[in-house]
Amino acid sequence: WEGNLDWCDAFFFAVPADFPVEIVPEGEGLILADAYHAEIIRPAVERKLAAARRKAQTLRLARAAAARLRRAEDPRARALDELDL
Q1: What letter would DSSP give residue 5?
Q2: Which SS3 state, helix, strand or coil, does residue 42 take?
């Protein structure tokens, strides 16, 4: 989980209500949840994601979403993606 800290503004552990919360690191956020409800018990430490990394991640997400939509709409798209055109 620590490898993910460079990629987020805030990091939360979301665990079930009967989870032993004392093993969750103190500096990170804590969310207790069940099938119907969730509550933030402890806020996360706020970190600022570097602007270049935020832009790169946003573009990566947008491209992945566009590729999925394209494959869903066009059955030939997967074959074209494999050609790496």
Answers
A1: G
A2: strand
pLDDT tens digit at each of 85 positions of the chain: 898 888 888 999 999 999 999 999 988 999 999 999 999 999 999 988 889 999 999 999 999 999 888 888 887 776 656 655 4
Backbone angles phi, psi at 76, to 5 degrees: -80, -10
String of b and e for 19-51 (b: at least 16 CB within 10 Å)? Answer: eeeeebeeebbbebeeeeeeeeebebeeeeeee
Tokens for 3, please give them. Answer: 């490898």
* Residues 6+ away with beta carbon under 8 Å from 77: 67, 70, 71
Extract the tokens encoding 60. 């990566």
* DSSP 8-state assignment for residue 35: S
- Cα end-to-end span (Å), the chain: 35
